[in-house]
Each structure stands twice: as structure tokens, then as C-alpha cells.
Automatic annotation (TrEMBL):
Keyword Secreted among UniProt keywords: no
Catalytic activity: ATP + protein L-histidine = ADP + protein N-phospho-L-histidine
Domain Histidine kinase: 207-425
SMART domains: GAF (SM00065), HATPase_c (SM00387), HisKA (SM00388)
GO molecular function: phosphorelay sensor kinase activity
Region entry Disordered, spans: 423-443
InterPro entries: GAF, GAF-like_dom_sf, HATPase_C_sf, HATPase_dom, His_kinase_dom, HisK_dim/P_dom, HisK_dim/P_sf, Sensor_HK_Regulatory
Protein name as it appears in the record: histidine kinase
Compositional bias segments (type: Polar residues): 430-443
Entry-linked CDD domains: HATPase, HisKA
Natural source organism: Phototrophicus methaneseepsis
Length: 443
């Protein structure tokens, strides 16, 4: 009877142990879910320490992180009293307990820290805390050392193998979460730096373009005046000055328009426009900007005249820039064609500018749309410019829900620039007008 009673008690104790282990494992599963949802480092570390104190049934916990650049292990967080903030950033010697855990990547159990020569007692003195016992485990992620997780002062008894196993599980989960949080933090920092560089660049462009406008206007006015001089030599020099001033004005306009690369659709004034309207405006624009007799520009009106939802001014800017590029890289006797073609579906129209000029290296067909990118070939660099016209064009086209790309078989083969835009149904008033015209025609 006594033997049966003892077996029953042992069985009950075993059942209680198993229930306790199951509860701990369930906690660790829940912890994994929470850790993966926290991306800010400071609250993440606090949660890790709180969980460590709970499952280890100890007085305090600390997280130490490894700085690979400085080759230094330092306190990142601790639950030791209210003045633990003074610990943050404090480096730890590599011959300390935490340093040994990191170096050997192995768990260390210390039941009496006061007699252990590896214990870094200065920390206890600084924060008025006494470390009696310590359980520390390494935190690693994909063979990369992240840091050390410590549990301090077990409330009852000594550290056990089960304690080590549970803290190791928590440390493995924590390492993944910390690595993710640090990556997010680094990404945010890099993004902030890029935004600051972008802000400074935009400020410089705004100031430079503003300051250049006034003196440029004076130069252009005076050069235009000198073109009327009776002296042929003076006229020639004035024409060269005016030509250079016009190129500078184009650069300034590109600098001003650079903001459209970032602002995109928020600045668009969209309306239903026929493609033929764009081409008619383009024809007038070309005649106003250049000697039409010098270059052969063929603008082919579309057979079918679809509507697009577009900002007339911005699309004109894109098309005019493409034609200016074609002119810059083409000889006067080489024709330039502007045409509209049906897209792959009825909901798409393609506007093309085709030249027979210098052509483009196929490896640079995508790079030419990058901001400030300029082809390095000696044959084309002399045309000048900031190299932002195509990047502005791409931003505007994409803000319309379209695409723009370049095609070329290589140097000497000319180039084709294509804009693909979604088409829309004709406005109701145009449909009504068409119906009225048809009725009149029938009568």
C-alpha cells in the first residue's frame, strides 16, 4: 500500500513537471509570434527581458549586443532597477562571463557570481545591484553572432539544464527578431540620409535656377539686340552668344522641372485629349523652337484618333524633349518621324519618336532614363545638358499610368523612343456631337 502511494505521488509530480514544461513551451510559441511583429529595437529588447525574467523565475535580465565594426560587446538593455539606463552602451571586457559566452558561443551557468573571477563587478557597483547567480546564452542568427542574453539571480535553487534549454530557445527567437529590427533601423537611417541629400540637392537646384534666370535674361536680350547690328561680325558673335544662352535656358528649365520626378501625379492637371490634339500642338511647338526647313520632321496623324487622359502641358514637355534629343543626335538630312500606333490592346496607344541619328549602345538603353545620367561617348557629350530630361519624361509618363522606353540596335543605327498610354472612352459630349453630326448628314 505504501509503495502504491509513493508511485502515485511520483506520478503526480511527473505530471506536474510535464504540465509546467508544456506551459513554458506554449509561452515560447506565443513569444515567437509577438517577437516577429515588433520592428522597433528598444521595445523589442524590453519584451525579451520581461519574458526571460518570467520563464526563468529570476530577478533581472540583460541583453548585450555585439558591435562588429568596433569589435565590442555592450549593454543594450537591462531590467536591473530604475537606474539601469546608465548601463546602456557600457562595453564589457571579452574576458568577462558575457565575453566568454560570446567567444565560445556556448551557454554558461554561474551559481555564485561573487566568487567567479570572470564576473565583471564594476557593473554591479555602478548601478547598485548585486549579481548572485547568472545564466547566459549566446544569440546567433545564421551563424552570425548577435549578442548575449543573461538571466540574473534565480529566485529558488540553482540553474538547471531545463533553464538553459528554455533560455537558449528564447535567445534563438530573440536573435532573429533583433536582426530584423536592426535591419529595419538601418534601412530607415539610410532612407533618412538619402532624403536629406535629396532635400539639399533640390534646395541647390531651386536657388541656382532662380539666381541664373535674371542675368540670363539680360544676356539674351542684349544678344538679340546685337543681332540687329549692321556689322556682320557682331551679328555672328551675337548669334553664338544667343545660341549658348538658349542652351543654358534649357538647362535651367530642366532643373526647375526636376521636381516632377518626385511629385508625379499630384501636380498633374488631367483631361480627356485626342492624340491628334497633342500632335497638332507639337507641330506648332516645333515651328516655334527651330528652323523647320533645316530638319525633316514628319508628324504622322493617327488613322484612329483615340482619347487619353493626360496633362496637355506635361505631355508636350515630354514629346518636345524627345524631339529635341532626336535633333541633337541627328544630321539635318536624316528624317525624324513622330507617329501614333495601336498598342497591344484596344486600351493602349503608343506614341513614337524615331530618328536615324547616332543611336544608343544597347547596354545603356535603361540607364539613359536615370537622373543625371549622361552617355560618356565623346561623340555625344559635346551636346551638353544635365542628363535629366529623360528621367523627368519617365516620371511624367508613369504618373499618367503609362510607360516609356528606348530601342536601338547600337551606335550608328538611330533610336526609337516609345510612350505607351492607356486610352479612354470618348467624353459624352463628343459622342453626342458625333450623333448630331450624323443625324444632320442623313437628312
Amino acid at each position: 500500500m505504501v509503495m502504491v502511494q509513493m508511485d502515485a505521488q511520483a506520478l503526480q509530480q511527473r505530471v506536474q513537471q510535464l504540465e509546467s514544461q508544456v506551459n513554458l513551451l506554449e509561452k515560447l510559441v506565443d513569444v515567437s509570434v509577438v517577437l516577429n511583429s515588433r520592428l522597433q529595437l528598444e521595445p523589442l529588447l524590453k519584451y525579451i527581458m520581461d519574458v526571460a525574467v518570467d520563464i526563468m523565475e529570476c530577478d533581472a535580465a540583460s541583453v548585450l549586443l555585439w558591435n562588429n565594426k568596433k569589435q565590442q560587446l555592450f549593454f543594450a538593455a537591462s531590467t536591473t532597477l530604475d537606474n539601469s539606463n546608465s548601463l546602456i552602451g557600457t562595453p564589457v571586457p571579452m574576458d568577462s562571463i558575457a565575453g566568454e559566452i560570446l567567444r565560445k558561443r556556448d551557454t554558461v551557468r554561474v551559481d555564485d557570481a561573487r566568487t567567479d573571477p570572470r564576473h565583471y563587478g564594476k557593473v554591479d557597483e555602478d548601478i547598485a545591484f548585486q549579481t548572485r547567480s547568472l545564466l547566459g546564452v549566446p544569440m546567433t542568427y545564421k551563424n552570425k553572432i548577435i549578442g548575449v542574453l543573461e538571466a540574473l539571480n534565480k529566485r529558488q535553487g540553482s540553474w538547471t539544464k531545463e533553464d538553459s534549454r528554455y533560455l537558449e530557445i528564447l535567445a534563438a527567437q530573440a536573435a532573429v527578431a533583433i536582426e530584423g529590427a536592426q535591419a529595419v533601423m538601418e534601412l530607415r537611417r539610410a532612407n533618412e540620409e538619402l532624403n536629406e541629400v535629396d532635400r539639399l540637392k533640390n534646395n541647390f537646384i531651386a536657388i541656382a535656377s532662380h539666381e541664373l534666370r535674371t542675368p540670363l535674361g539680360v544676356i539674351m536680350g542684349y544678344a538679340s539686340f546685337l543681332q540687329e547690328d549692321e556689322d556682320v561680325s557682331t551679328q555672328s558673335h551675337a548669334s553664338k552668344v544667343l545660341e549658348s544662352a538658349l542652351r543654358l535656358r534649357k538647362i535651367i528649365e530642366d532643373m526647375v522641372n526636376l521636381r516632377y520626378v518626385k511629385q508625379k501625379q499630384s501636380d498633374l492637371h488631367l483631361e480627356a485629349i485626342r492624340v491628334s490634339e497633342l500632335f497638332s500642338s507639337l507641330s506648332l511647338e516645333i515651328q516655334a523652337l527651330m528652323d523647320i526647313d533645316k530638319y525633316q520632321i514628319n508628324i504622322k496623324m493617327p488613322d484612329k484618333d483615340p482619347y487619353v487622359y493626360a496633362d496637355h502641358t506635361r505631355m508636350m514637355m515630354v514629346l518636345t524633349n524627345l524631339i529635341n534629343n532626336a535633333i541633337s543626335f541627328s544630321a539635318p538630312d536624316k528624317p525624324i518621324t513622330v507617329e501614333a500606333l495601336k498598342g497591344l490592346t484596344d486600351k493602349e496607344v503608343r506614341l513614337r519618336v524615331v530618328d536615324q541619328g547616332l543611336g544608343i549602345d544597347p547596354t545603356q538603353l535603361e540607364k539613359i532614363f536615370e537622373e543625371f545620367y549622361q552617355v560618356e561617348d565623346h561623340m555625344v557629350r559635346h551636346h551638353g545638358g544635365l542628363g535629366i530630361g529623360l528621367s523627368i519624361g519617365r516620371a511624367i509618363v508613369e504618373a499618367h499610368g503609362g510607360r516609356i522606353w528606348a530601342e536601338s540596335a547600337g551606335i550608328g543605327s538611330g533610336a526609337t523612343f516609345t510612350i505607351s498610354l492607356p486610352t479612354i472612352d470618348p467624353p459624352q459630349e463628343d459622342i453626342n456631337q458625333a450623333d448630331t453630326s450624323q443625324t444632320i448628314s442623313e437628312t
